[in-house]
Amino acid sequence: MNENTEEIMLDLLCKQAVYGLNEEETKQLSQLEKGFGGLDAESIEATAAMIALVGVDAKAEMPTHLQARILDSADDYFHSLAVSRNDGAAGRAIVETATPRRSFVDWLGWAVAAAACVALGVNIYLTRSQPAVDTARQGVPTPTATVELTPAQKRQQLMESAPDVIRADVAGMKEYQHVGGDIVWSDSEQTGYMRFRNLPVNDKSKETYQLWIFDETQEEKTPIDGGTFDVDQNGEVVIPINARLKAKNPKAFAVTVEKPGGVVVSKRERIAAIGKTSA
Amino acid sequence: MTRATLQSIAAGDKNAVQDCLKAYGGLVWSLARRMLRNSEDAEDAVQEIFIDVWKNAGRFDPSQSSETTFIAMIARRRLIDRIRYSQRRISSDSIEDMVVEPADSTAQNLQTTVEGREAFEALKALRPEQRQVLELSIIQGLSHQEISDATGMPLGTVKTHARRGILQARENLGLGKSGLSKEVPV
What is the pLDDT of residue B95? Predict the structure, then answer.
C-alpha cells in the first residue's frame, strides 16, 4: 500500500468509527480493504466504542416491555436457527425471520386511528355521564367545566384540527433519563400539550415542574414560561401548556424542576427533560 | 457474565440470551437513549442491536476486546446508521451549552464500566481540542459540520482533530498494532 492510499484508508476508517460513512465512502473503503489490510480497523472502532461508554450508565433499567420484545425476537431467532440447521438451509430462514417484530412506529398509524375512535366513544360517554378525570394537574387552577374533555382528548383534537401543529420529541436528562414523550403546539390556536412517560411523581410541597418555550420572539436566556404542573401518577400523563406570552414558532421546550409555584427566571439547575422541534 | 455467554449464544443456547440482556441491556439502552433521544427510536434500535449481537456472537474474540466493547461496537454501528438515515436526532442541551461544558460532569458521576473509565483516562491525556471534538462527536453525537458550527473551528480542523484524536486515544488505550504511532502526530 502506498502512503497516499494508506492515508485515504486511515481517514475513512477514522471517520467510520467516529461519525459513520455515507454510501459512497462505504464503497470506497470496501474497495480499499479488498486490496489492502493491516491498518487494524477493528481497533479504531473499538476505541470509539470505548469512548462512547464514558458516562454511560450500565445499570440503567431497560423498559420491561422492551425486554419482552427482545425475548420474543430471541424466540424467533433461535427457532429459525434451529430450523436452518436442520434443513441445511443456513442463513435464509434467519434472514427471513430474525428481523424485529413490527415496531411501535409501524403500528402508530393504526394506533392513532384506533385512539381517535376510542376518544370519540369516550367523549360521547363522558359528555352524557360524568366529568373527565385529568391525568395530571396544572399548578395554576383552571375554571371547572361541567363537560370537559381530558387533556389527552384535547391533544388529539388539536392534532386533528389545527393545520400548524408542530411536535417535539422529549428526552429525559440525567436522573430523569427514563422520561420520554412529546410536546405538540399550535401557533394559530396558541395551545399545546405535553405528553410524558415515566416523569416521576413530584412532592408538591417541595417542588413543581415548569415548562419553558424557546421561540423566535424571545432570547434563549429568557424563554416563555409555559406554566407549572405536578405529576400525581406514574405512567403516561398529558398536560396542557399554559403559556404566559404568545409563542411563535417554538424551536425547543425544556422542563425544569422548581420550587412550588414556579419561578420567573429559571436557574436551569435541574432540567428534567428537553425537546427540540423537528426541522 | 463470563465470556462464555456470547459463545453460548453463538452455539445456539437460548438461555444465554437472558444473561446477555441482564448484563448488557442497561448499557445498550443507555447508549441508545443518549444517541437517539427519542425513546421509540431507541427501543427499536435496541431490539435490532441485540439481534445483531446474536448474529455476530460467533465473531467475538476475547483476545481482541472485552465483551462490553464488542457489544458497544455493534451498538454504535446500528445507532450511527439510524442517525444517518433518520435525521431525527435531537441534542441534549443547546450545542453552545455542550461546548462550554462537555461530557466531564456526567463522566465523573457515571463511569460504570471498566472500559468507560479507561476511555475517560485516555481522553484526558489528549490535547484539549482533540478531546473536545471526540466528546462532541462520539459522546454527544454531533456531526463534523455541527461541531464546526458550534466551536467555530474550520471543518477541516475538526476532521483533523477527530482523526488524530481517535488514533492517539487508541494508542493511549493500548489497542491496535504497534508501529502505527508515526500516524499520530500531536
Answer: 42
d(CA A19, CA B84): 9
CB–CB of B21/B50 below 8 Å? Answer: yes
List Cβ neighbours of A74 (8 Å cut-off, separation of 6 or more).
B14, B17, B50, B54
**Is the pLDDT confidence value at A245 over 90?**
no
For the domain made up of B95-183, give the CATH fold. Answer: Arc Repressor Mutant, subunit A (1.10.10)
A73 and A175 share a domain? no
Residue-range domain boundaries for chain B: 4-86, 95-183
Residue A250 falls within a domain, yes or no? yes
ipTM of the complex: 0.85
Q: Do A104 and B138 touch (CB under 8 A)?
A: no
Domain that holds residue A46: 3-52
Q: Which residue of A has its CA nearest to B80?
A: A20
* Shared-domain flag, residues A151 and A27: no
With beta carbons less than 8 A apart as the criterion, state whether A239 and A141 touch.
no
Q: Of A50, A67, A75, which is closest to B21 when you measure between CB atoms?
A: A67
Q: Which residues of B touch A181 (CB under 8 A)?
A: 39
pLDDT tens readout for residues B105-119: 344 444 468 998 899
Find the CB nearest A74 among B14, B27, B173.
B14
* Tally of structural domains, chain A: 3
Query: What's the whole-model pTM score?
Result: 0.56
Instruction: Clarify whether residues A268 and A157 are in a common domain.
Output: yes
Domain shared by A239 and A206, yes or no: yes
What is the share, in percent, of chain A residues with pLDDT greater than 90? 23
Q: Does A183 touch chain B (CB under 8 A)?
A: no
Distance between CA A223 and CA A204 in Å, rounded? 24
| Domain B4-86 = CATH 1.10.390.10 | no
- Are A202 and A242 found together in one domain? yes
| Of residues A215 and B181, more confidently modeled | A215
The three-class DSSP label of residue B64 is: coil
DSSP A79-124: HHHHHHHHHT-TTHHHHHH-SPPPPHHHHHHHHHHHHHHHHHHHHH
The string of pLDDT tens digits covering residues B135-165 is 989 987 788 888 898 889 999 999 999 999 9
Is residue A102 a part of any domain in this protein? Answer: no
Same domain, A71 and A152: no
H or E element: which one contains A208? strand A208-214
CB-based contact, A274 to chain B, within 8 Å:
yes
A205 and A122 within one domain: yes
| A chain contacts of residue B173, beta-carbon cutoff 8 Å | 47, 50
DSSP characters over A28-47: HHHHHHHH---S-HHHHHHH
